[in-house]
Structures are given as C-alpha cells and as structure tokens.
Write a structure and sequence with these properties.
Largest sheet: 8 strands, parallel, barrel
Strand order of the largest sheet: 4-5-6-7-8-9-10-11
Number of strands: 34
Number of helices: 10
Shape: globular
C-alpha cells in the first residue's frame, strides 16, 4: 500500500518536487498515490473552510482539489477581488496547515454547475465574442485573469515550499471543441504566470481525450460511479504505457435541477470504484467529496434545452451540504484506512444544527409599483441585460401595443429565462424558457391600441456546459405580436422600449413597504426579523413561497422555487447571530403563506412540476398558429411604444 510519505505541513517553506515517474507519481522522489477531495471554496463560508478540510483529512484523503472561479474574482471588468471568501491563497495555506496537498484547476472555464461555467458575464457585452477560443478579446481577458491567479498561487507551488502539486490546463475541452492551438495557448499562459515548474495536466473523457491531448502534459480521465474503471484507461495505457494513471473527476453523485427528481448514487458502487483504482495504483480525485452550496445567484444551468441547477450542491457527496459525515463517508473512510500506514484522524465534530420557530412576515415592497420602480432607460430595439451593464437579477421591458383581437399571439423571441407578462397592469401570463417550453403567449382578450405591455424577466443561471455557455439574459432578439386582421395575418415587431433594471444586488433597502395583501402575486420584497438564543446551522423551509431569493443578515442564501425538488435553503450558523436576525425574501410570483421556519433536516426531494408555467402555446397548437406567418402576412413596427410613460403593473 502507498501512503502519505511526507506532509506539506512538515515541509513548509522547503522546496519539493512532484512529477510523473514510471507508472506512478513521485513526491520528492518517492512513489505517491494522489487521493484528492474536490471541494469548492466559494460554496463554503470562509469560517467553515478549515472544518471541511479537516473532514477530508479524516476521510483518508491527502490532497484537496479546487477550481478557480474567474467570475467570482472579476465581477467587474478589470477589478479583481481575492479577499474574504475569495481568498483562495489562504484556503491553500489552510490545506497545507493540515497536511494536505492541493491541485489547482484555474480554467478559465470550470463548468462545475456554476454560473456560465465560471466565465464572467461581462464578456457577453461584446456580442460576437467567441468563448473558449483564440478570439483576441477573449484571450486578452483570460491572460489578465491568469496573471492574477499566478500572483496569488504561484508562490504556493511545491517547488516554492507550498502545497500545490498539480495545475490543470483548461477543463474537459474535448466536450466543447477540437482546438489544440487554443489549449496550447492556455498551457503557455499558465507557464508564463508562474506555473512553469509545477506539473501541468489536462483532463477529459476516455472517449474524446485524444482530440486535444498535448504531448507535454499529463493526461487524466474523468468518469463516475458505476463505470468500468480499468476500461476507462485502456487507450491512454496504449499510448503511454509507463505514465501514471489518474481519474481527475470520479463522480460521487450528481447535481439537482429545478423541476427534476433529486439525484443520488449508491455508496457501494462509489467505494468499489475507488477500491479498484487503489488496487491498481491509480490516483483519483473524488468529485465531489463535499459539494456545499451555490449561494446567491451562482448556480448555473445545464444545456439540455435550459435546465437551471438548484441552489444546493450537496451532490449526494460523502460530506453533505451542511458539512456532516454521511454513510458514504464512513464506508469510504473504512476503505481508505486500509490504504494508510497510520491511523486516520478522528472525524471532526459536526457543526450544531438548530430549529427556528415560524417567522411571520407582515410587510412587503412591491417592486413594480410606481413608487418603487427604478428609472427607465429608452431603447428603440430590444437588447439583452448585458447591454445595459447588468449581469444578474431581473429586467423589465415596456412598450405599447397595437389593437388586436383575442387569440392574438405574443411571441418573445429568445427569452431568458422566466417572464411575467402584463397588459395595462394585469398579469396575462407566465412563460419559462425551460426544456420543452415555448415562449409564445395567446392573448385571451381583445387589446386596445395603446395598451401598455410590460414583460418582467428573471434571469436564472447561465448555461455552464457546451457551446450554449454564450447565454445572454433578458430578451436577446425581438418581441412580436401576431394578429389576424380580417383575411390577413399581421406581424408587429414591437419597438420603442422602456427598460428598467432590477440587479440582484438590490436587497429591498430604500423601498416603500406596506402591509401584506393576502394572495398578492406581484413581485415583491418581504422582510421580517427573528431572535435566537443560540447559533447553529439550519435549513430554511421555503415550501410556501413561489420563486426568488433569500437574504439573512445581508448574506444571500440562494434561489428557491416551489417546483422543487429543493424546498429548503441551507443557512450556515456562522451567518447567524445571537439575538436579532434580519431576513429578506424576494418572491416574484408570491407566497401562499408568508412565513418561514428553520428545520434541522433539509428537504431536497419534494418535486411539484404542477407549478411550472402553463400559459405558453406549445407543440402542434403553436405550429398551427404560426403556419401562415411570412406568407400572407405583413410586418409593421410599433413606434409609439410608451416613451416617457412611467405607469407600471400595480400602479395606483
């Protein structure tokens, strides 16, 4: 059995080596099997970093594997933040403090079910940007970011006495494209910023790794529970019979998406796969060992049409979302103990979990009422959110309509992602971009000329996988009204818009609040407070709420949506305080009951697809309705679209 021969804590500030030997990795010249735990620093509150690292150590791991999330460090172009929860260098130093090595995966693309796969939204302000290519604009910003990564982490490579033993070049690029010159340029960039001596590797699937494999990089495979482990390495062993083998992502579970069933994977299959790797001297990184939480707006979306990811990133991992050991943990720990020459550390004590009595909300601030509306911006044409210098949150498009008979179709072309549609202040429908859904609404009543149209759109996570990562928000093409006028079909391409922005950074402060109106479904902030005598982690029950975001004491817990399967939000105890605590909920569709309570266990498997929008015209009905378009119809542009008109849904 191979065990940890030297700890980075013992070797602190002493230069070391890590390299590929014949059939094995060599740490300071001695055979070494990497047993890595993937955890993500942005998905763990900083006060809990050390606890999670110690949990990985007690599991039997010798290495921590991390992505570097570009978009959380450069949220505004040219402004880098490496402080607080973004202080990844301190995270690496904590790993070293506890005798753990570190593998760094600095992208620029990371996937990870993270907003836009880790790429910053502001890249999309350049509409023709070609992401993950040698597009000069893209590469200019990649190199600026990686230079900053190098400043933070290059001093912490093993050659400089730090814990970092490997650095990854790009990420699963074969599932995106074949472009060796691009991958080579990323490699050269990383070498130029200080990673010139540390081992560089590239990961991919066994089915596609040859598409972009560079001869001077280590090759690692990614696969999951249930795969035939030895089959995954057949081709790489043929090409490089003496190279060490590594699974750089062994998937312990899977992620959840809104409106789909909760995902789990069997513990014995995971453990047996790792046993096979250890028996065959194959290194591995367990993705995820602890998934954590995609707090705030950072959850991404899958590329099957559009399938936004849940806030919880529990991943059915051995260490659960709250940081506690699961049955998977103990089964894997028992195996890894057999491959350790010393007794594993004791499992750290679990962080206390508390219940919080029901909290009742009594006041709300409707964000579409005239008194709370933000200033409007005039735009003749439809433009996506990014063109108004907003990355996250919601946006409202307003104009006026021509006269139309009941049955007319309102078609929103390329709507991202969830829309509330109002005519003269009355909600006439909800639309969702999700897989299998359309964004065309049939109007049920006649519309008078000059009627005001408001389309309020909530942006959910940008797609984080495939070429669909180019995913601007709001409305990216046009809004059309298709109306039958006598024997003719007329298509009006609506123009002359007034735009209002609702950034996700807005937390309801400075708005006018009033007593809650029962059954109101208007988008609104709700606020309340509660008092606790002791602090601990808890799970906020959001099952009576519609769709939105929650803040506690200024910390954004993430998204909720009544469709599930996730019905609770994890609240770290380090964000609570003894005494008074403040809670704010933004709900765009309205609660059935404006109360919350803190539970001691999560509810992440309660699916209610009946709450998905049903207003869209879909399938054959839509095809039939659009059948004559472009043949007998004509196109007219509405030019009196409400410039200077500040009325809004709910305005009194």
């Amino acid at each position: 059995m191979l065990s940890l021969l030297a700890s980075p804590a013992m070797a602190a500030k002493t230069a070391g080596t890590f390299e590929a030997g014949k059939g094995t990795f060599l740490l300071n010249g001695k055979p070494f099997v990497v047993k890595a735990a993937e955890i993500h620093y942005p998905r763990i509150p900083r006060p809990y970093w050390e606890h999670r690292i110690k949990m990985c150590k007690a599991l039997g791991m010798n290495t921590i594997c991390i992505y570097i999330f570009w978009n959380i460090h450069e949220q505004k172009e040219g402004q880098f933040d490496w402080t607080g929860n973004n202080d990844v260098a301190e995270f690496c130093r904590l790993a070293q403090k506890h005798g753990m090595y570190v593998i760094v995966r600095p992208g620029p693309y990371v996937c990870a079910e993270w907003e836009m796969g880790g790429l910053p939204w502001w890249l999309l302000k350049k509409k023709d940007v070609k992401l993950r290519t040698q597009d000069p604009f893209f590469m200019e910003h990649v190199k600026a970011f990686e230079k900053e990564v190098g400043k933070q982490l290059a001093p912490l490579t093993i050659q400089n006495g730090g814990p970092i033993i490997m650095v990854q070049v790009e990420n699963e690029y074969g599932s995106y494209d074949t472009n060796k010159p691009y991958v080579s340029e990323i490699r050269d960039c990383l070498r130029s910023v200080g990673f010139d001596k540390v081992a560089l590797f590239q990961c991919d699937w066994s089915s596609n790794f040859e598409q972009n494999a560079l001869p001077d990089l280590l090759w690692t495979m990614n696969f999951g529970t249930g795969a035939n482990v030895l089959d995954q390495f057949k081709r790489v062993k043929q090409l490089r019979p003496d190279a060490p083998l590594m699974c750089s992502e062994y998937w312990s579970g899977w992620f959840d998406g809104w409106g789909t069933a909760h995902q789990t994977r069997p513990a014995d299959a995971m453990v047996n796969g790792i046993k096979t790797m250890l028996e065959n001297n194959i290194s591995f990184s367990l993705y995820m060992t602890h998934g954590g939480t995609s707090f705030g707006h950072w959850a991404g979306a899958n590329n099957t049409g559009f399938a936004p990811d849940c806030t919880s990133y529990d991943y059915d991992a051995p260490i659960n979302e709250q940081g506690a050991a699961t049955e998977k943990y103990y089964q894997l720990r028992a195996l890894l103990q057999k491959y350790s020459a010393t007794k594993l550390p004791a499992v750290p004590k679990a962080i206390p979990v508390i219940a919080i009595p029901e909290v009742k909300f009594t006041e709300s601030a409707k964000i579409l009422c005239a008194e709370n509306l933000p200033q409007s911006i005039a735009s003749y044409d439809i433009e996506p959110m990014e063109q108004f210098d907003q990355g996250y949150g919601s946006i409202m498009y307003s104009t006026t309509l021509p006269a139309a008979k009941a049955g007319a179709l309102l078609q929103i072309n390329d709507m991202c992602d969830y829309a509330l549609v109002y005519i003269d202040g009355k909600k006439v429908g909800e639309l969702y971009r999700g897989n299998g859904y359309e964004t065309t609404l049939r109007l049920k009543q006649d519309v008078k000329a000059g009627a005001k149209l408001d389309i309020f759109i909530e942006a959910m996570g940008r797609i984080n996988y495939s070429k669909l990562i180019h995913d601007p928000k709001g409305i990216t093409k046009s809004v059309e009204l298709l109306s039958n006028e006598g024997a003719h079909e007329v298509t009006y391409n609506l123009k002359d818009w007034q735009i209002r922005l609702f950034p996700v950074s807005q937390t309801g402060e400075g708005l006018k609040y009033s007593p809650i109106t029962e059954g109101d479904d208007a988008p609104a902030f709700y606020r309340a407070s509660f008092t606790i005598s002791k602090v601990g982690d808890t799970y906020l029950d959001m099952s009576t709420w519609g769709k939105g975001l929650v803040w506690i004491n200024g910390h954004c817990l993430g998204r909720f949506w009544q469709v599930g399967p996730q019905q609770t939000l994890y609240v770290p105890g380090c964000w609570l305080r003894k005494g008074k605590n403040d809670i704010t909920v933004l709900d765009i569709t309205g609660p059935s009951k404006a109360t919350v309570k803190g539970l001691t266990n999560p509810n992440v498997s309660d699916l209610h697809r009946e709450y998905l929008p049903k207003d869209a015209v879909k399938g054959d009905a839509l095809k039939a309705a659009l059948a004559g378009r472009g043949k007998s119809g004509k196109t007219a542009a509405v030019t009196d679209g409400g410039a200077g008109n500040d009325a809004a849904p709910g305005a009194k």
